[in-house]
Amino acid sequence: MPLHMTKIAYSAESPADLRAWLESHEAEARLTTRYLPKRHEEMAGGSLYWIYEHALIGRSPILGFEQRDDGRWWIRLAPRLIPVATKPKRAHQGWRYLKDEDAPRDLGQNENAGDAVPPKLARELAKLGLV
């Protein structure tokens, strides 16, 4: 089972905005990080799960890691956003690991993000211990 990571979609104004940014890259999208994750080898076949409004809303497959000339690292991603069942997730700085068994499922072809609980409602339900 691959290891995944989570990251806040900090510059995205909406999930559609995040999707547009990812899809604007032809071969791969790149994010910069200061350090190579210690468990990067376990992430082969894993994904970066995006946090928007305190909820996991989608994922982008991780293609690998590449060191930049300045010593930082690129997280290389497939340029697509795969919608997942909304799952509450607290905001954090940088990235965090996510085990495969804790990752939300992908939405099916007959499902769309509108079928999932909206992130704000999911957050409130989580505070009440209902999800």
TrEMBL record:
Pfam families: DUF1489. It comes from the Bacteria. This is DUF1489 family protein. It comes from Novosphingobium endophyticum.
